[in-house]
């Protein structure tokens, strides 16, 4: 399987490089071109509920390293392990890179993910947001731009507008952030494989993660 991962890396890295290279284009919000199997999507998770290995990923939508993981590494894992039923990936979105205030861009992006998730569009939204980062706390995820990104991802923005303005949604993001910090997440991405934190945090290659996934699968009951 690791050999298959290496082959997949070359393909996905090329596609992701093209997307990341033009992600700041505020007029197009291009499709990252990462369709995931609809039958395996489960909210902000993807993969069979009974998969022997679970990879939990804590990310902030403003984090550029998280974008690389989600657009370059994760698709290889989905193609190699998730489709085969070996792996389930769970996203945990938190917000601690923002500048605070009513228009905190990390909070806005994560709140948008909650609302997209309610429409069954979490993965399309998250991929589109990561592909269109434009600096941290520099207006890339200001409300009107984020709304356009959500619309480009196929989200019904009329419902989305009322959802993202709901104080309960922001509280959900705050609770998720507090939960992550409470269990020691202090940088992104931070990953847990079958409950064990992968240290140090940060970007890991598909090959490295593939080796760990296969070892965890071999050790699973």
The H/E string reads HEEEHEHHHHHEEH
Calculate the terminal CA-CA distance, rounded to whole Å: 20 Å
Mean pLDDT: 90
CATH architecture: 3-Layer(aba) Sandwich
- Beta fraction of the residues? 5-15%
Silhouette: globular
Main β-sheet description? 6 strands, mixed
CATH superfamily: Glutaredoxin
CATH topology label: Glutaredoxin
Radius of gyration: 16 Å
Largest sheet, order of strands side by side?
1-2-4-3-5-6
Briefly summarize what is shown.
It contains 8 helices and 6 strands, in the order H-E-E-E-H-E-H-H-H-H-H-E-E-H.
Description of the structure:
The protein has 221 residues and is α+β, with helices and mostly antiparallel strands. The protein has one domain: Glutaredoxin, CATH 3.40.30. It is 50% helix and 11% strand. It contains eight helices and six strands; from the N terminus they run αβββαβαααααββα. The protein has a six-stranded mixed β-sheet, with helices on both faces. α1 (2-21) packs antiparallel against α2 (64-82). The protein starts with a helix and ends with a helix.
Structural descriptors:
221 residues, alpha+beta, Glutaredoxin, six-stranded mixed sheet, 8 helices, 50% helix
List the topology elements.
Blueprint: H1 2-21, E1 41-42, E2 45-46, E3 53-59, H2 64-82, E4 87-93, H3 105-118, H4 122-131, H5 143-152, H6 157-164, H7 167-182, E5 190-193, E6 196-197, H8 206-219
Parallel strand pairs: 3-4
Antiparallel strand pairs: 1-2, 2-4, 3-5, 5-6
